[in-house]
Specification:
Elements (H helix, E strand, L loop, with lengths): L7 E4 L3 H12 L6 E3 L10 E3 L4 H6 L3 E4 L8 H12 L7 E2 L4 E2 L10 E2 L4 E2 L4 E2 L4 E2 L4 E2 L4 E2 L4 E2 L4 E2 L4 E2 L4 E2 L4 E2 L4 E2 L4 E2 L4 E2 L8 E3 L4 E2 L1
Parallel strand pairs: 1-2, 1-4, 2-3, 5-7, 6-8, 7-10, 8-11, 9-12, 10-13, 11-14, 12-15, 13-16, 14-17, 15-18, 16-19, 17-20, 19-21
Antiparallel strand pairs: 21-22
Bound molecules: coenzyme A.
Coenzyme A (COA) binds next to β21.
Length: 208
């Protein structure tokens, strides 16, 4: 991850956005500020609401999606797609402690937080968030806009669709498919394929 040498603007003003600002600072990149509906805490520079996004994009700023998820990925998907439609260009960020195998395909706007791991052969779509300590084992595929929450373990060869929230500490056994828009609850152990759009919880994971 290189210093973009452009103004860096984070979309979102909550604690997830603040954490991304701290990760960037550790890499020597100071963010210009945050665009959010509500004014963020005093230690974050507020640039304004969505209306100001276009002018920052025109002036050459590069953006980061600072929206996390605790249930579904709709908001973080919408924020990203709306910003793209307004001409925003996104950068990917990676904490210094994250480990990404060199041949892992990484398109734009990927976020890998502290101690996240993506092993050899992984393919990750745009606007994916791989949160603190999450592990993608070899050959895992993650569709765009999905969130792999803290401490999750996705075993080798698993295919995760678009916009999936894969919960904190959840595990998916090897080679399974998790359909687009599915929600895997925190701590679930996924032992069978998960249908698109369903929510599963528990060990073994069952639909609710
Ligand atoms: C699965 C989840 C999305 C369900 O949320 P919800 O639709 O609001 O569901 P509710 O809280 O109303 O719970 C519905 C039922 O499922 C149970 N349940 C909810 N989440 C569960 C989980 N992770 N494991 C086991 N059971 C769970 C509840 O106890 C409740 O059972 P009951 O009807 O017998 O009381 C949510 O609980 C969850 O696990 N989210 C992931 C959190 C996460 O990953 N955070 C990381 C942020 S970085």
């Amino acid at each position: 991850m290189n210093n973009p040498k452009r103004d860096v603007v984070i979309l979102g003003g909550g604690s997830h956005a603040k954490m991304l600002g701290a990760i960037l600072l550790r890499r020597g990149i100071a963010v210009k500020g945050y665009i959010s509906k509500l004014k963020p805490s005093d230690d974050m520079v507020w640039l304004g609401q969505d209306e100001v996004l276009e002018s920052f994009a025109r002036d050459g700023a590069v953006f980061i999606n600072g929206i996390g998820s605790v249930k579904n990925c709709e908001l973080r998907t919408r924020v990203y797609l709306n910003a793209k439609a307004s001409g925003a260009e996104f950068m990917s960020i990676q904490d210094t402690s994250a480990q990404v195998h060199f041949d892992t395909a990484m398109p734009e706007a990927i976020i890998l937080l502290t101690n996240a791991v993506a092993q050899v052969g992984c393919k990750v779509g745009a606007n994916v968030l791989i949160n603190t300590g999450a592990i993608l084992e070899h050959d895992v595929e993650v569709g765009p806009h999905s969130h792999i929450a803290p401490g999750a373990v996705v075993c080798g060869g698993v295919k995760i669709g678009a916009g999936v929230h894969f919960g904190a500490g959840a595990v998916a056994l090897q080679n399974l498919h998790i359909g687009g828009g599915a929600i895997v609850g925190a701590g679930a152990v996924v032992t069978k394929n998960v249908e698109a759009g369903t929510t599963v919880v528990g060990n073994p994971a069952r639909a609710i």
